[in-house]
Design brief:
By secondary structure, the protein is an alpha/beta fold. The chain contains nine helices and five strands, in the order E-H-E-H-E-H-E-H-E-H-H-H-H-H. A five-stranded parallel sheet has the order 2-1-3-4-5, sandwiched between helices. The protein is elongated, with a radius of gyration of 23 Å.
């Protein structure tokens, strides 16, 4: 169930008609601008929505986890404020499901019954913070704003990685093999000997790799890959 706060402005409650597309007009790495709130206490959801709206942060509130999971847009930079204990699907199960989807949105857990073990479990599985209810409003604002900044950086890194992956997807298996050997530090003569082809053929493949990936040099392409954590995937 979606709990929608009274519509006082475009930032509050469920997504409004005409809402701008995800990431539209946002510089890469800029803070995200959406907070999902998932808590079976509807009054708390709406109270938090009003708090965030007071500093112009858009929210979408849900009183059950399944509704959130159905509506969650993995492509839109956002963070999540998530209650631990809820009927049906609980907060830790939501975290597991998001991790299984490789979701990058930062998760802030809240609980009226939290303890150290619960907090450690949440943080070890990737949560960025754990707040006990009732939480201090300014503390919540500080945590959410930092989570939104983290979201902006995470989504920017993911977008950069996906862009490099698209460039690499244009390569043939032979070109991928040659690139893997270049990354491993093999000179062209050694690559030619290892693959049983001529040096001229290796050089032609290297040129096609640069052309297909729109890279000025193979060194620049490898730098892009390493920065995105893709260098080892070619091994």
């Amino acid at each position: 169930m979606t709990a929608t706060a009274p519509a006082q402005g475009p930032h509050t409650g469920a997504a409004q008609a005409g809402e701008r597309p995800a990431g539209a007009g946002r510089p890469a790495g800029a803070p995200a601008d959406l907070v999902y709130v998932v808590d079976d206490d509807e009054e708390l959801c709406l109270s938090l929505a009003w708090l965030l709206e007071s500093v112009h942060i858009r929210t979408r509130c849900f009183t059950d986890a399944d509704s959130f999971l159905a509506a969650f847009d993995a492509e839109r930079p956002a963070c999540l404020v998530l209650d631990v204990r809820m009927p049906g699907t609980g907060g830790f199960r939501v975290q597991e499901l998001l991790n299984s989807r490789d979701a990058v949105l930062p998760v802030v857990f809240v609980s009226a019954h939290g303890d150290i073990a619960m907090s450690v479990r949440a943080l070890q599985r990737g949560a960025v913070d754990f707040l006990e209810k009732p939480y201090d409003p300014q503390r919540m604002l500080d945590v959410v704003q930092e989570a939104l900044r983290t979201a902006g950086r995470r989504y920017a890194r993911r977008a950069e990685r996906q862009a490099v992956e698209r460039r690499l997807s244009r390569l043939s298996p032979r070109e991928r093999e040659i690139l893997r050997r270049v990354i491993a530090g093999e000179p062209s003569k050694l690559i030619a000997r290892g693959l049983g082809i001529s040096l001229k053929t290796v050089d032609a493949h290297r040129a096609r790799i640069r052309e297909k990936t729109s890279a000025d040099t193979l060194g620049a392409l490898i730098g892009d890959m390493m920065r995105c954590g893709l260098g080892q995937s070619e091994g």
